[in-house]
Design a protein that fits this description.
By secondary structure, the chain is mainly beta. The chain is 13% helix and 44% strand. It has one domain.
Length: 52
Amino acid sequence: MVMDLVHPRCAGIDVSKRDAKVCVRVAGRGRAGATSKVTTWGSFTNQVLAFA
């Protein structure tokens, strides 16, 4: 099955009262698979500002 790549880079965010989890996914070249990086950010003001 062949699928067209619509967006080579995408991101998602999940926000709760305690923290925010962010995932960034980048498509690989050729046969290389996509890479994903997940980070967690706290809800304190300095952590929210660092996330921005």
